[in-house]
Every structure is written in C-alpha cells, then in structure tokens.
Amino acid sequence: MSQDERMVKLRLSWFRHVKEVTGNVAKTCRHYGISRTMYYRWYDRYLEQGMEGLKDRSKRPKSHPKTTKREVVEKILYLRQHYYFGPTKIHMYLARYHDIQISSACIWKILKTACMNRLPANQRYRPHKERFKRYEKPLPGHNIQMDVKFLERIPNISHRRYYQFTAIDDCTRLRVMKIYDRNTQKNAIQFVDYVLSSLPFKVECIQTDNGKEFQSQFHWHILDKGIRHIYIRPSTPRLNGKAERSHRIDEEEFYRMLKGVVIDNANLFNQKLKEWESFYNYQRPHGSLNGKTPFEKLQEKISSMCNA
Q1: Which of the four pLDDT bands, split at 50, 70 and 90, describes residue 128?
Q2: Residue 16's closest CA among 69, 54, 73, 49?
C-alpha cells in the first residue's frame, strides 16, 4: 500500500469514528491526536472532492521567482555546446555581451542539470603535474610569439592548402593574423613586416619554432631591423604556448563557425580572418586576463607605465 493510500485510509477512519463511536468531533480529535482545524479541513475536502480530496497535495510552489530565465539557460547551453566554455568563461561572456549577472556556481548547476558539466575528453584539463607553469612578460613588445597554423584542404573541391601566420604579444595577448597560400620565408618576411606596422608598440624580440619558413633569410631580416630573434628548442611547442593555445581558440571559435562555408580564395579568407582578429583583440574576454580583452590589458599596462 502506498503512502497516499495509507493517509486516505487514516482520514476516512476519523470520519467513521465520529459517526460510529463518539458522535463528537472534539473527542475523536483527542483520540487521534489531531486538531479540530485539521479535521474540518480534510472533512470539507472530502465533501467537495470525495476520495481524491483526501490525498496529499503537492507542496511545490506555484511560482519560482529566483529560477534562471529560460533564455539565459539557452545562452549558457549554446556557449557550452558550441565553444566548450567553462562556467567562468560563460560568466564573463554573459556579463560583457548580454549584461546578465549570474554566478559561475549557478552556471555549473545548470550545466550539470543538462548533463553538460563534463567536457569532451580532448577539451579537459590535464592533471596538475602534467601542466607547465604559466609565465608572462612584464611589458608589451618584450616578446612576440610567432607560429603557423596549417589549414586543411577542402575535400573534393580544392587541392590548395592555406597557412595562417600568427603573431601574439606575450604580455597583452594582442594578436595579428594573416592567411597565405604558401609557407615560405618570403611570406614569413612579408608577415613580420605587416606585424611590426600593425602593433601599437615597439617590438624587442620575436620568438619562433624551427620551421623552414623561419630560417636564415627571415632571421637576418629581423636582426637588420634591430629586433632579436630566438628559436625555441626543437620538439618543445609548449615554449610557444600562447601561440599554440590561440590556434586552438581559432579552431574552436572561428573555423568551427565556417564549417559548411567554402572559401577557396586567400583574399576572402583574410577578410573573414580580419573580422575575427578584431573581435579577438577588442571584444573577446580572456580567462587568462581575468575577463579583460587584449586591448583592455594593453590600456592597463600603458596606464600603469604612465603612473609609475
């Protein structure tokens, strides 16, 4: 017998006890240890609804004023599903772009309810002992990491491969990017000149891996400009970690949005990439910068230098 059935049977026994034993409500209430208010409340329900009226009603509140709005929940799930953002990054995005204030803890609960609190295996953090210590140069331009991202060919459409050259400032995370259709020293030299003309501060050092595009011609071109050029140790891409991480962001947030869009023209590719670069530098909040954009970080550094 269920709990509801037992309670219905008990309440019916109150009414029978009055009718068949005491003939007095007060005596029956003393016998069962209940108040007359309770007796009449259930008796009135019994007269109005019959046996259904003797069942316990749900105690769930009719309204939930503190419940997160549906449109906010949808935004949270969208950012998680399409960008793999964690609770902290989602909190930053909602505050910056939608003026929505919601705690990271609340976001995590929403993700857990939707069974989306665990990231795909390739997106999860590695154990602490496997990570490397994060570092940051103190001033803009002290060190620029430069790297190349190889873009896959478009199957059954084009045999042409494109290469994304990327430069990122170690201090502010400000980035400059450009697409080329060949991975050569000539293009690397053109790109570094483009970087130096685009960055709003003086560059003191450029750091690259040992790729063929960064060899002697590129090396001496940089030295001729009075800028140091250093190579990272072979087979240690982690030393160019900020450039490598930014390429992963490109894959997750930029190229993912281009899926299904056929672009087989370097000029058109660069137009799209320029829009993404602007968003990355001026609007996208960065977890490593405590929610600031690279441009805001640059302004902060310039302000602290002026006040020093």
Answers
A1: very low
A2: 54
C-beta separation of 241 from 143 below 8 A: no
User: And the tokens for 194?
Assistant: 């483009």
pLDDT of residue 131: 47
Global pTM?
A: 0.65
pLDDT at 67: 82
Exposure letters 8-46 (e unless 16+ CB within 10 A, then b): beebeebbebbeeeeeebeebbeeeeeeeeebeebbebb
* CB-side neighbour CA atoms (13 Å) of 266: 12
Rounded to an integer, what distance in angstroms lies between the CA atom of residue 230 and that of residue 144?
10
Q: What angle do CA 262, 244, 185 make, to 5 degrees?
A: 75
User: What is the structure's pLDDT at 238?
Assistant: 86
What are phi and psi for residue 229, nearest 5 degrees? -130, 120
Tell me, letter by letter, the H, E, C secondary structure of 24-55: CHHHHHHHHCCCHHHHHHHHHHHHHHHHHHHC
Residue 223's alpha-carbon distances to 171, 243, 305, in angstroms, are 22, 22, 27
CA–CA distance, 258 with 279 (Å, rounded to integer): 16
d(CA 163, CA 149): 6
| The pair of three-digit structure tokens given for residue 28, joined into one six-digit string | 């029956």
DSSP bridge partners of 169? 144
Residues 217-255 have pLDDT tens digits of: 999 999 999 999 999 998 888 889 999 999 999 988 888
